[in-house]
Amino acid sequence: MMLEALRSIVQAVNAAGDLQSALDIIVSRIAEVMNTEVCTVYLRDPDSKRLIFMANQGLNPELIGKVSLGPDEGLVGLVARREEPVNLDHAEKHPNFLFLPGIGEEHYHSFLGAPIIHQRSVMGVLVVQQKDSRRFDEDEEAFLVTMSAQLAGVIAHARATGSINTAQNTVGATASFKGIAGATGVAIGQAVVIVPLAELHSVPRRQSDDPQAELKAFAEALDAVRVDIRALSDKLLTQLPADEHALFDVYLRIIDDGAWASEVVAKIEAGEWAQGALSQVMSSHVRAFEMMEDAYFKERATDIKDLGRRVLSYLQASDVEPTEYPEKTILVGEELTASMLGDVPRDRLVGMVSVRGSSNSHVAILARAMGIPTVMGASDLPYTQIENANLIVDGYSGYVHYNPTADVYEHFRSVSEEDHALNQGLEALRDLPSETLDGHRMPLWVNTGLMADVARSLDRGAEGVGLYRTEIPFLLRERFPSEEEQRIIYREQLLAFAPLPVTMRTLDIGGDKALPYFPIEEENPFLGWRGIRVTLDHPEIFLVQVRAMLKASEGLNNLRIMLPMISNVQEVDEALELVRRAFDELLEDGWDISLPPIGVMVEVPAAVYQARQLARRVDFLSVGSNDLTQYLLAVDRNNTRVADLYHAYHPAVLNSLQQVVDAAHAEGKPVGICGELAGDPAAVLILMAMGYDMLSMNDNSLLRVKAVIRSCRFEDLQGLLDGVMVVDTADEVKALLRKAMIGVGMERLLQPIGSA
Question: What is the pTM of this model?
């Protein structure tokens, strides 16, 4: 019963139009379910930190928004401060009790308060009160705690949305939304919201210049759907049982029901474009049906959603006006894709924001390759409401600033200018050797995946490719590329960099990289079927790819092959056998090729502990620091909830990195690193000291890293490493590296500190 009540309250709150409506629903429904006389929500003001009386059932409504408590005041302040529930039978006898005149709570003796906490931050306090002098029982306390935990995310989202969309705040509202840094840099520009086809919930709000044209388009779309459904009905007349076929009549009745259509018409006449009006009305009806108790009516929500999508697809097809891209376009979407990116003129695209997705998403990799500041996974951003809004994308910290204040704008404008000036200054290093002041050479290679990466990588003085992501061509197709298609792609890469070495990683799919034509459905994909596990289970895919690589290397001999996601020596032995088989077959067929160096990626903890055994079997090791950090710390780096725990400077990560170098060198094998850490200018100081033979990074980081290398003395780095390896926390490591960067005059290369 309580679970059902919880579900219905959360559904009702999700359907609320703004924050205040959500809070009003919360207090009335909780009071009803818990059968209490009073329910109140206090929300913490982010600036003053005071707890404001924001919604109430049972007390004086005239004081809503006017009464507040400091963090040290009253029982409400006590709940917020202790971050745990307070349950009292005589509230007025508690030393923290504070009498608020006029609010009317002096008659209520029982008090139960629970903190509302979102991502470690206390957002407010939820309180129920009763006249009886009794302690609330365990079930009631558990319900209120569960309710506050459920509502924390809802309130955070409603608050973020409300900061843009409440009527009193439409003009001049400012807000910041946290995501994941996808590509570094700062972008200042105007939002252009990209809408996926026939997705009702993704349609942005937009004012129309020609309501009559919008009304005509809506009427024509309705007629077209009516014709489609009748045609489908006739076609399936003999193939469906009568009761199932009757569904088409239900669809037609919904279309002919003038009530919802007139709501759409009214919104269009009020200035909304047809797609937005349809989206808002249909979404509202869908939510209403989903909240009904009756199973039959709940099912109707699906029918309405389906009809809405059909009408929307016709509206989208008739909307032939090309999208206008402002001079400084920031592309925003629920889930941006490479094809969406392709529509924007490159000289106008300055930044990107994707509500879903991760820093490993294809579009984020593309953004880094193109040098476009990007934030991924900004899940609280109410993207449908920000068309044409002024945005700042902070690709360093992962924040999106909506309608920034003059101070915030000025701060990021200066960061952007510094970035530009710094990049211009670094160009002078392009042809200079990557070596320390005392002559220690540190080869800098690049990570690539697209032909677009190649020219810039060579331009910036790359000495080879430490990671070519072969999955990119697979992701860009609707089927597995053939052996010849792969050979042509790989040949282009090898030719472009020849005679410099190119390290091609065999297909690494799974985790968060799924091929649309080879879906891998798993509850825990990062601990599942990915990397070498997939290709060893499908030797036909592996052999085709290896043959294509070997053929592509003919006459160039600059290929290196790297095996991903290795967790035991048997996988290496099997893979080596398949590579040699492919090589022998091609020799028999007359190809003039030599067996390339083969290496292993060290990216799971098991490979760290077997690094020496792995090094014996292969020609080189390469650490994938992104996945290694993720697996060592049990933190999904693409999950905003735990992103703060993902830290490549964690002592456990650094110890593992040192262990891999020692193991590889004990077997006389070179070892490199190709994760994000290799492109971190501060981390380079300790990676060199650890003994890494090569660093491979995003081409945008290459000159920054070279600047640090050319500013330090190798003989000084061992002392820094010794200090780093004995501290206990990532923050202490960071402080030591910051000090070292200042010491070599490179503090300007440390990540700029955003305003958020």
Answer: 0.73
